[in-house]
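Risk mitigation, structural track. In case the binding assays with iron/sulfur cluster fail to produce interpretable data, a predicted complex structure has been prepared as a fallback.
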Amino acid sequence: MTEQALIVAAHGSHRNADSAIPTLDHADAIRERGCFDQVRTAFWKEAPSFRSVVRTVDAERAYVVPLFVSEGYFVDQVLPREFGLGVADVTGEPTEPELIYTDPVGTHPEMTDVIAARARRRLDDVPESDAALAVVGHGTERNPNSAEAVYDHVDALEARTDFAEVGALFMDESPYVSAVLDRFAADDVAVVPLFVADGFHTRDEIPELLGIADDPRSGYPVPGERDGRRIWYASAVGTDSLVPEVILERAAEAGADLDRDAGETAVRPDAAEAFRSWIDRSLAEGDTRGQEWGDLLVTGDGDTYELRHRADRDADRGALTERDPDTFGRFVRSDDDGRFRPFGGERSLPTGWVLPDLGPENLLAAIAAVYPGAIETWADDPDPVPFREVAARQTGIYAGVSDLSDGALDDLTTAVCGNCARRRKWTENGDPDSVADRGVDESPASDGTEPPCREPCSFLIAAAREILETDHAGEQR
Ligand code: SF4
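Fallback model:
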Protein backbone atom coordinates (compact mmCIF):
# COMPACT_ATOMS: atom_id res chain seq x y z
CA MET A 1 0.00 0.00 0.00
CA THR A 2 1.27 3.45 -0.88
CA GLU A 3 1.41 6.40 1.49
CA GLN A 4 -0.90 9.24 0.65
CA ALA A 5 -3.68 10.19 -1.74
CA LEU A 6 -5.58 13.38 -2.35
CA ILE A 7 -9.32 13.56 -3.03
CA VAL A 8 -10.63 16.90 -4.26
CA ALA A 9 -14.35 16.86 -3.48
CA ALA A 10 -16.64 19.24 -5.40
CA HIS A 11 -20.27 19.70 -6.39
CA GLY A 12 -20.32 19.01 -10.15
CA SER A 13 -23.53 19.25 -12.18
CA HIS A 14 -25.92 17.25 -14.34
CA ARG A 15 -26.57 20.34 -16.49
CA ASN A 16 -23.55 22.64 -16.52
CA ALA A 17 -20.58 21.14 -18.35
CA ASP A 18 -18.23 23.72 -16.85
CA SER A 19 -19.08 23.06 -13.22
CA ALA A 20 -16.51 20.30 -12.82
CA ILE A 21 -13.83 21.79 -15.08
CA PRO A 22 -11.93 23.81 -12.42
CA THR A 23 -11.81 20.72 -10.20
CA LEU A 24 -10.43 18.61 -13.05
CA ASP A 25 -7.93 21.33 -14.02
CA HIS A 26 -6.69 21.78 -10.47
CA ALA A 27 -6.31 18.01 -10.02
CA ASP A 28 -4.22 17.88 -13.22
CA ALA A 29 -2.00 20.69 -11.95
CA ILE A 30 -1.51 18.90 -8.62
CA ARG A 31 -0.68 15.61 -10.38
CA GLU A 32 2.21 17.39 -12.07
CA ARG A 33 3.66 18.10 -8.63
CA GLY A 34 3.90 14.31 -8.16
CA CYS A 35 3.60 14.28 -4.36
CA PHE A 36 0.53 12.03 -4.07
CA ASP A 37 0.23 8.39 -5.09
CA GLN A 38 -3.26 9.14 -6.34
CA VAL A 39 -4.99 12.43 -7.03
CA ARG A 40 -8.69 11.81 -7.36
CA THR A 41 -11.69 14.04 -8.01
CA ALA A 42 -15.13 13.21 -6.60
CA PHE A 43 -18.49 14.92 -7.09
CA TRP A 44 -21.97 15.18 -5.62
CA LYS A 45 -23.55 15.30 -9.09
CA GLU A 46 -21.02 13.48 -11.27
CA ALA A 47 -18.92 10.33 -11.22
CA PRO A 48 -17.09 9.17 -9.27
CA SER A 49 -19.34 9.89 -6.31
CA PHE A 50 -18.04 10.72 -2.85
CA ARG A 51 -19.05 7.18 -1.83
CA SER A 52 -17.32 5.35 -4.65
CA VAL A 53 -14.10 7.33 -4.99
CA VAL A 54 -12.59 5.82 -1.83
CA ARG A 55 -12.61 2.45 -3.60
CA THR A 56 -10.18 3.86 -6.20
CA VAL A 57 -7.57 4.78 -3.59
CA ASP A 58 -4.68 2.57 -2.54
CA ALA A 59 -3.01 4.54 0.24
CA GLU A 60 -2.70 4.58 4.00
CA ARG A 61 -4.15 8.07 4.17
CA ALA A 62 -6.36 10.07 1.86
CA TYR A 63 -6.73 13.82 2.35
CA VAL A 64 -10.24 14.91 1.42
CA VAL A 65 -10.19 18.60 0.46
CA PRO A 66 -13.63 20.16 -0.21
CA LEU A 67 -13.50 22.55 -3.18
CA PHE A 68 -16.35 24.67 -1.83
CA VAL A 69 -16.35 28.39 -1.08
CA SER A 70 -17.42 28.00 2.53
CA GLU A 71 -18.65 25.74 5.26
CA GLY A 72 -22.36 24.94 5.17
CA TYR A 73 -24.69 22.15 4.16
CA PHE A 74 -22.35 20.28 1.80
CA VAL A 75 -19.14 20.65 3.78
CA ASP A 76 -20.72 20.07 7.19
CA GLN A 77 -23.33 17.42 6.38
CA VAL A 78 -23.25 15.87 2.92
CA LEU A 79 -19.55 15.16 2.53
CA PRO A 80 -19.01 13.66 6.02
CA ARG A 81 -22.11 11.50 5.53
CA GLU A 82 -21.20 10.32 2.04
CA PHE A 83 -17.54 9.66 2.88
CA GLY A 84 -18.63 7.80 6.03
CA LEU A 85 -16.21 9.89 8.04
CA GLY A 86 -15.73 8.66 11.56
CA VAL A 87 -17.35 5.32 10.69
CA ALA A 88 -15.43 2.22 11.82
CA ASP A 89 -15.79 -1.08 9.98
CA VAL A 90 -17.44 -4.17 11.54
CA THR A 91 -14.29 -5.09 13.46
CA GLY A 92 -14.32 -1.71 15.14
CA GLU A 93 -11.09 -0.77 13.38
CA PRO A 94 -10.88 2.52 11.49
CA THR A 95 -11.51 2.06 7.77
CA GLU A 96 -8.67 2.19 5.24
CA PRO A 97 -7.56 4.46 3.83
CA GLU A 98 -7.67 6.74 6.80
CA LEU A 99 -9.70 9.71 5.54
CA ILE A 100 -8.47 13.09 6.73
CA TYR A 101 -11.06 15.76 6.08
CA THR A 102 -9.90 19.37 5.75
CA ASP A 103 -11.66 22.71 5.88
CA PRO A 104 -12.96 24.00 2.53
CA VAL A 105 -10.67 25.73 0.07
CA GLY A 106 -12.75 28.92 -0.09
CA THR A 107 -12.19 29.91 3.54
CA HIS A 108 -8.41 29.49 3.50
CA PRO A 109 -6.59 32.78 4.19
CA GLU A 110 -4.60 32.25 0.96
CA MET A 111 -7.84 32.59 -1.00
CA THR A 112 -7.74 36.25 -0.03
CA ASP A 113 -4.48 36.52 -1.98
CA VAL A 114 -6.05 34.68 -4.91
CA ILE A 115 -8.94 37.18 -4.98
CA ALA A 116 -6.49 40.10 -4.86
CA ALA A 117 -4.27 38.62 -7.59
CA ARG A 118 -7.30 38.00 -9.80
CA ALA A 119 -8.49 41.60 -9.37
CA ARG A 120 -5.02 43.02 -10.08
CA ARG A 121 -4.67 40.94 -13.25
CA ARG A 122 -8.10 42.07 -14.38
CA LEU A 123 -7.41 45.74 -13.72
CA ASP A 124 -4.58 45.63 -16.21
CA ASP A 125 -2.62 48.90 -15.80
CA VAL A 126 -5.05 50.65 -13.43
CA PRO A 127 -3.15 51.17 -10.14
CA GLU A 128 -4.60 49.20 -7.24
CA SER A 129 -4.70 52.34 -5.10
CA ASP A 130 -7.06 54.00 -7.63
CA ALA A 131 -9.50 51.10 -7.83
CA ALA A 132 -12.24 49.52 -5.74
CA LEU A 133 -12.51 45.77 -5.25
CA ALA A 134 -15.90 44.05 -4.80
CA VAL A 135 -16.20 40.42 -3.67
CA VAL A 136 -19.54 38.91 -4.74
CA GLY A 137 -21.49 36.13 -3.02
CA HIS A 138 -25.04 34.77 -2.93
CA GLY A 139 -26.21 36.14 0.41
CA THR A 140 -27.11 34.80 3.83
CA GLU A 141 -30.47 33.29 2.85
CA ARG A 142 -28.96 30.63 0.64
CA ASN A 143 -25.96 29.94 2.85
CA PRO A 144 -25.08 32.13 5.88
CA ASN A 145 -21.57 30.68 5.86
CA SER A 146 -20.91 31.81 2.32
CA ALA A 147 -21.81 35.43 3.18
CA GLU A 148 -19.55 35.18 6.22
CA ALA A 149 -16.73 33.91 3.98
CA VAL A 150 -17.21 36.94 1.70
CA TYR A 151 -17.01 39.34 4.65
CA ASP A 152 -13.92 37.56 6.05
CA HIS A 153 -12.12 38.01 2.74
CA VAL A 154 -13.21 41.65 2.54
CA ASP A 155 -11.77 42.30 6.03
CA ALA A 156 -8.50 40.60 5.10
CA LEU A 157 -8.28 42.46 1.78
CA GLU A 158 -8.76 45.77 3.58
CA ALA A 159 -5.91 44.90 5.93
CA ARG A 160 -3.50 43.39 3.41
CA THR A 161 -3.92 45.30 0.12
CA ASP A 162 -3.80 48.88 -1.14
CA PHE A 163 -7.15 48.95 -2.97
CA ALA A 164 -8.82 52.32 -2.51
CA GLU A 165 -12.01 50.58 -1.35
CA VAL A 166 -12.97 46.98 -0.66
CA GLY A 167 -16.52 45.74 -0.12
CA ALA A 168 -18.97 42.86 -0.33
CA LEU A 169 -21.85 42.63 -2.81
CA PHE A 170 -24.60 40.02 -2.86
CA MET A 171 -27.06 38.70 -5.38
CA ASP A 172 -29.88 38.13 -2.87
CA GLU A 173 -29.49 40.86 -0.27
CA SER A 174 -28.07 44.30 0.42
CA PRO A 175 -25.56 45.54 -0.57
CA TYR A 176 -26.85 44.34 -3.92
CA VAL A 177 -24.64 43.67 -6.94
CA SER A 178 -26.84 46.01 -8.97
CA ALA A 179 -25.88 48.90 -6.63
CA VAL A 180 -22.19 48.51 -7.40
CA LEU A 181 -21.70 52.13 -8.52
CA ASP A 182 -23.46 53.49 -5.42
CA ARG A 183 -21.45 51.26 -3.13
CA PHE A 184 -18.04 52.50 -4.38
CA ALA A 185 -16.69 55.95 -5.27
CA ALA A 186 -13.77 54.85 -7.47
CA ASP A 187 -14.09 55.14 -11.27
CA ASP A 188 -12.58 51.67 -11.69
CA VAL A 189 -14.20 48.76 -9.85
CA ALA A 190 -12.82 45.20 -9.98
CA VAL A 191 -15.53 42.60 -9.31
CA VAL A 192 -14.53 39.07 -8.26
CA PRO A 193 -17.27 36.44 -7.65
CA LEU A 194 -16.52 34.06 -4.77
CA PHE A 195 -17.78 31.03 -6.70
CA VAL A 196 -16.03 27.72 -7.39
CA ALA A 197 -16.95 27.46 -11.06
CA ASP A 198 -18.45 29.49 -13.86
CA GLY A 199 -22.08 28.90 -14.73
CA PHE A 200 -25.36 30.73 -15.01
CA HIS A 201 -24.68 32.97 -11.96
CA THR A 202 -21.25 34.19 -13.03
CA ARG A 203 -21.79 34.23 -16.81
CA ASP A 204 -25.29 35.66 -17.01
CA GLU A 205 -26.86 36.77 -13.74
CA ILE A 206 -24.03 38.81 -12.19
CA PRO A 207 -23.04 40.65 -15.42
CA GLU A 208 -26.75 41.43 -15.85
CA LEU A 209 -26.99 42.80 -12.31
CA LEU A 210 -23.79 44.81 -12.86
CA GLY A 211 -25.38 46.32 -15.96
CA ILE A 212 -22.58 45.23 -18.29
CA ALA A 213 -24.17 42.12 -19.83
CA ASP A 214 -24.97 43.94 -23.09
CA ASP A 215 -21.71 45.87 -23.22
CA PRO A 216 -19.71 44.32 -26.09
CA ARG A 217 -16.48 45.58 -24.51
CA SER A 218 -16.98 43.90 -21.13
CA GLY A 219 -14.95 40.81 -22.00
CA TYR A 220 -11.33 40.40 -20.95
CA PRO A 221 -9.15 42.54 -21.04
CA VAL A 222 -11.55 45.44 -21.64
CA PRO A 223 -13.90 46.51 -18.83
CA GLY A 224 -17.64 47.07 -19.11
CA GLU A 225 -18.63 50.73 -18.94
CA ARG A 226 -21.55 52.14 -17.01
CA ASP A 227 -22.27 55.82 -16.36
CA GLY A 228 -18.76 56.68 -17.55
CA ARG A 229 -17.17 54.36 -14.98
CA ARG A 230 -15.43 51.07 -15.61
CA ILE A 231 -16.35 47.67 -14.18
CA TRP A 232 -13.55 45.09 -14.47
CA TYR A 233 -15.45 41.85 -14.08
CA ALA A 234 -13.52 38.63 -13.37
CA SER A 235 -14.96 35.14 -13.70
CA ALA A 236 -15.30 32.79 -10.70
CA VAL A 237 -12.30 32.89 -8.37
CA GLY A 238 -12.40 29.08 -8.09
CA THR A 239 -11.16 28.83 -11.69
CA ASP A 240 -7.94 30.70 -10.86
CA SER A 241 -4.66 28.93 -11.60
CA LEU A 242 -3.49 29.75 -8.06
CA VAL A 243 -6.21 27.58 -6.47
CA PRO A 244 -4.18 24.31 -6.66
CA GLU A 245 -1.71 25.91 -4.23
CA VAL A 246 -4.53 26.53 -1.77
CA ILE A 247 -5.74 22.92 -2.12
CA LEU A 248 -2.20 21.71 -1.42
CA GLU A 249 -1.95 24.05 1.54
CA ARG A 250 -5.15 22.59 3.02
CA ALA A 251 -3.72 19.07 2.62
CA ALA A 252 -0.33 20.09 4.08
CA GLU A 253 -1.98 21.66 7.12
CA ALA A 254 -3.71 18.30 7.70
CA GLY A 255 -0.37 16.47 7.55
CA ALA A 256 0.27 15.69 3.87
CA ASP A 257 3.91 15.57 2.80
CA LEU A 258 4.29 17.76 -0.29
CA ASP A 259 7.99 16.95 -0.76
CA ARG A 260 7.48 13.33 -1.76
CA ASP A 261 8.21 12.01 -5.21
CA ALA A 262 5.31 9.69 -5.99
CA GLY A 263 3.97 8.05 -9.14
CA GLU A 264 0.31 8.56 -9.94
CA THR A 265 -1.84 5.50 -10.71
CA ALA A 266 -5.12 6.17 -12.53
CA VAL A 267 -6.65 2.88 -11.36
CA ARG A 268 -6.08 1.11 -8.03
CA PRO A 269 -3.15 -1.24 -8.79
CA ASP A 270 -4.68 -4.60 -7.75
CA ALA A 271 -7.92 -3.80 -9.60
CA ALA A 272 -5.91 -2.68 -12.65
CA GLU A 273 -3.98 -5.95 -12.68
CA ALA A 274 -7.13 -8.08 -12.37
CA PHE A 275 -8.94 -6.14 -15.09
CA ARG A 276 -6.02 -6.25 -17.47
CA SER A 277 -5.69 -10.02 -16.96
CA TRP A 278 -9.36 -10.39 -17.81
CA ILE A 279 -8.99 -8.23 -20.92
CA ASP A 280 -5.92 -10.18 -22.09
CA ARG A 281 -7.64 -13.49 -21.46
CA SER A 282 -10.75 -12.36 -23.27
CA LEU A 283 -8.77 -11.10 -26.24
CA ALA A 284 -6.80 -14.36 -26.44
CA GLU A 285 -9.81 -16.67 -26.07
CA GLY A 286 -12.73 -14.71 -27.41
CA ASP A 287 -13.75 -12.69 -30.42
CA THR A 288 -10.57 -11.62 -32.20
CA ARG A 289 -12.33 -8.38 -33.17
CA GLY A 290 -12.08 -7.19 -29.59
CA GLN A 291 -13.58 -7.16 -26.11
CA GLU A 292 -16.51 -4.89 -25.34
CA TRP A 293 -16.97 -3.16 -22.00
CA GLY A 294 -19.96 -0.89 -21.88
CA ASP A 295 -19.83 1.24 -25.02
CA LEU A 296 -16.10 0.67 -25.42
CA LEU A 297 -14.24 -1.82 -27.57
CA VAL A 298 -10.70 -2.93 -26.67
CA THR A 299 -8.38 -4.69 -29.10
CA GLY A 300 -4.73 -5.55 -28.58
CA ASP A 301 -2.03 -8.14 -28.18
CA GLY A 302 -1.25 -7.87 -24.46
CA ASP A 303 1.46 -5.23 -24.97
CA THR A 304 -0.32 -2.49 -26.85
CA TYR A 305 -4.03 -1.86 -27.15
CA GLU A 306 -6.52 0.20 -29.10
CA LEU A 307 -9.70 1.70 -27.72
CA ARG A 308 -12.70 2.93 -29.71
CA HIS A 309 -16.50 3.12 -29.48
CA ARG A 310 -18.05 -0.29 -30.00
CA ALA A 311 -20.29 1.25 -32.66
CA ASP A 312 -17.09 1.86 -34.68
CA ARG A 313 -16.09 -1.80 -34.51
CA ASP A 314 -15.94 -2.19 -38.30
CA ALA A 315 -14.55 1.26 -39.15
CA ASP A 316 -11.08 1.60 -40.66
CA ARG A 317 -8.71 3.15 -38.18
CA GLY A 318 -7.88 5.86 -40.71
CA ALA A 319 -11.53 6.89 -40.83
CA LEU A 320 -11.53 7.61 -37.08
CA THR A 321 -10.13 10.71 -35.37
CA GLU A 322 -7.11 9.99 -33.23
CA ARG A 323 -7.60 11.40 -29.73
CA ASP A 324 -5.00 12.51 -27.21
CA PRO A 325 -5.14 10.27 -24.10
CA ASP A 326 -4.35 13.32 -21.94
CA THR A 327 -7.51 15.15 -22.99
CA PHE A 328 -9.72 12.13 -23.60
CA GLY A 329 -11.54 12.54 -20.25
CA ARG A 330 -12.72 16.03 -21.28
CA PHE A 331 -13.67 14.85 -24.76
CA VAL A 332 -16.08 12.18 -23.51
CA ARG A 333 -18.01 14.69 -21.38
CA SER A 334 -19.96 15.70 -24.52
CA ASP A 335 -21.85 13.65 -27.07
CA ASP A 336 -21.59 13.70 -30.87
CA ASP A 337 -23.63 16.92 -31.00
CA GLY A 338 -21.55 18.70 -28.37
CA ARG A 339 -24.28 18.29 -25.71
CA PHE A 340 -23.03 17.81 -22.16
CA ARG A 341 -23.62 14.22 -21.09
CA PRO A 342 -25.48 14.44 -17.76
CA PHE A 343 -24.12 11.16 -16.40
CA GLY A 344 -21.08 9.17 -17.39
CA GLY A 345 -22.92 5.95 -18.22
CA GLU A 346 -25.42 7.58 -20.59
CA ARG A 347 -25.51 5.79 -23.91
CA SER A 348 -24.39 8.92 -25.69
CA LEU A 349 -20.64 8.36 -25.71
CA PRO A 350 -19.26 10.15 -28.77
CA THR A 351 -18.31 8.01 -31.75
CA GLY A 352 -15.76 8.34 -34.53
CA TRP A 353 -12.60 8.42 -32.40
CA VAL A 354 -9.76 6.04 -31.67
CA LEU A 355 -6.99 5.80 -29.08
CA PRO A 356 -4.32 3.72 -30.81
CA ASP A 357 -1.08 2.19 -29.47
CA LEU A 358 -1.96 2.44 -25.80
CA GLY A 359 0.24 0.88 -23.16
CA PRO A 360 -1.61 -0.99 -20.39
CA GLU A 361 -1.65 1.99 -18.02
CA ASN A 362 -2.96 4.39 -20.64
CA LEU A 363 -5.63 1.88 -21.65
CA LEU A 364 -6.90 1.60 -18.08
CA ALA A 365 -6.70 5.37 -17.56
CA ALA A 366 -8.81 5.91 -20.70
CA ILE A 367 -11.41 3.37 -19.59
CA ALA A 368 -11.50 4.98 -16.13
CA ALA A 369 -12.03 8.37 -17.78
CA VAL A 370 -15.19 7.05 -19.44
CA TYR A 371 -16.43 5.03 -16.44
CA PRO A 372 -14.83 6.55 -13.31
CA GLY A 373 -14.41 4.05 -10.48
CA ALA A 374 -15.97 1.22 -12.49
CA ILE A 375 -12.84 -0.95 -12.80
CA GLU A 376 -12.44 -1.00 -9.00
CA THR A 377 -16.15 -1.80 -8.55
CA TRP A 378 -15.79 -4.60 -11.11
CA ALA A 379 -12.80 -6.01 -9.22
CA ASP A 380 -14.33 -5.75 -5.73
CA ASP A 381 -17.91 -6.64 -6.68
CA PRO A 382 -19.25 -5.13 -3.45
CA ASP A 383 -22.75 -5.78 -2.13
CA PRO A 384 -25.27 -3.65 -4.01
CA VAL A 385 -27.04 -0.91 -2.06
CA PRO A 386 -30.84 -0.92 -2.57
CA PHE A 387 -32.68 2.20 -3.74
CA ARG A 388 -34.68 2.45 -0.50
CA GLU A 389 -31.47 2.54 1.56
CA VAL A 390 -29.95 5.30 -0.59
CA ALA A 391 -33.23 7.24 -0.55
CA ALA A 392 -33.46 7.01 3.26
CA ARG A 393 -30.10 8.70 3.78
CA GLN A 394 -30.93 11.70 1.55
CA THR A 395 -31.32 15.12 3.14
CA GLY A 396 -32.05 18.64 1.93
CA ILE A 397 -33.97 18.89 -1.33
CA TYR A 398 -33.67 15.12 -1.89
CA ALA A 399 -35.13 14.14 1.49
CA GLY A 400 -38.49 13.22 -0.08
CA VAL A 401 -37.28 10.71 -2.69
CA SER A 402 -38.25 7.85 -0.32
CA ASP A 403 -41.84 8.66 -1.31
CA LEU A 404 -41.32 7.37 -4.84
CA SER A 405 -43.72 4.47 -5.42
CA ASP A 406 -42.35 1.15 -6.60
CA GLY A 407 -44.25 1.56 -9.87
CA ALA A 408 -42.69 4.97 -10.48
CA LEU A 409 -39.28 3.54 -9.61
CA ASP A 410 -39.84 0.77 -12.12
CA ASP A 411 -40.61 3.36 -14.82
CA LEU A 412 -37.61 5.42 -13.76
CA THR A 413 -35.10 2.60 -13.88
CA THR A 414 -36.49 1.53 -17.26
CA ALA A 415 -36.06 5.04 -18.65
CA VAL A 416 -32.79 6.07 -17.01
CA CYS A 417 -30.91 2.84 -16.33
CA GLY A 418 -32.20 1.50 -19.64
CA ASN A 419 -30.23 4.28 -21.32
CA CYS A 420 -27.06 3.57 -19.35
CA ALA A 421 -24.05 1.47 -20.30
CA ARG A 422 -23.59 0.40 -16.70
CA ARG A 423 -25.30 -2.78 -15.55
CA ARG A 424 -27.65 -2.18 -12.64
CA LYS A 425 -26.84 -4.51 -9.74
CA TRP A 426 -28.92 -2.80 -7.09
CA THR A 427 -32.56 -3.52 -6.35
CA GLU A 428 -35.40 -1.53 -4.87
CA ASN A 429 -35.18 -3.04 -1.40
CA GLY A 430 -33.43 -6.37 -1.79
CA ASP A 431 -36.73 -8.21 -2.35
CA PRO A 432 -36.44 -10.06 -5.68
CA ASP A 433 -40.26 -10.10 -6.06
CA SER A 434 -40.47 -6.32 -5.96
CA VAL A 435 -41.90 -4.74 -9.12
CA ALA A 436 -38.95 -2.40 -9.43
CA ASP A 437 -36.42 -5.22 -9.11
CA ARG A 438 -37.38 -6.79 -12.40
CA GLY A 439 -34.58 -6.91 -14.91
CA VAL A 440 -31.79 -6.44 -12.42
CA ASP A 441 -28.63 -8.38 -13.24
CA GLU A 442 -27.62 -10.51 -10.28
CA SER A 443 -24.63 -12.21 -11.91
CA PRO A 444 -21.15 -11.42 -10.55
CA ALA A 445 -19.72 -8.20 -11.98
CA SER A 446 -16.80 -10.10 -13.50
CA ASP A 447 -19.20 -12.13 -15.68
CA GLY A 448 -20.50 -9.17 -17.58
CA THR A 449 -19.28 -7.02 -20.42
CA GLU A 450 -20.84 -3.93 -18.83
CA PRO A 451 -19.39 -1.82 -16.04
CA PRO A 452 -21.33 -2.64 -12.86
CA CYS A 453 -23.48 -0.13 -10.98
CA ARG A 454 -23.72 -1.01 -7.29
CA GLU A 455 -25.99 1.77 -6.08
CA PRO A 456 -28.33 4.40 -7.54
CA CYS A 457 -26.35 7.30 -9.00
CA SER A 458 -27.00 10.98 -8.29
CA PHE A 459 -28.65 11.43 -11.69
CA LEU A 460 -31.25 8.77 -10.87
CA ILE A 461 -31.89 10.31 -7.43
CA ALA A 462 -32.31 13.76 -9.02
CA ALA A 463 -34.68 12.27 -11.63
CA ALA A 464 -36.71 10.65 -8.81
CA ARG A 465 -37.06 14.05 -7.16
CA GLU A 466 -38.21 15.64 -10.42
CA ILE A 467 -40.92 12.99 -10.82
CA LEU A 468 -42.20 13.64 -7.30
CA GLU A 469 -42.14 17.42 -7.84
CA THR A 470 -44.07 17.08 -11.10
CA ASP A 471 -46.65 14.84 -9.39
CA HIS A 472 -46.92 17.31 -6.52
CA ALA A 473 -47.40 20.26 -8.89
CA GLY A 474 -50.08 18.28 -10.76
CA GLU A 475 -51.98 17.57 -7.52
CA GLN A 476 -52.05 21.29 -6.69
CA ARG A 477 -53.56 22.34 -10.01
FE1 SF4 B 1 -26.67 3.92 -14.74
FE2 SF4 B 1 -28.90 3.54 -13.38
FE3 SF4 B 1 -26.58 3.06 -12.27
FE4 SF4 B 1 -27.28 5.57 -12.72
S1 SF4 B 1 -28.29 4.14 -11.33
S2 SF4 B 1 -25.27 4.64 -13.17
S3 SF4 B 1 -28.40 5.33 -14.65
S4 SF4 B 1 -27.44 1.95 -14.00
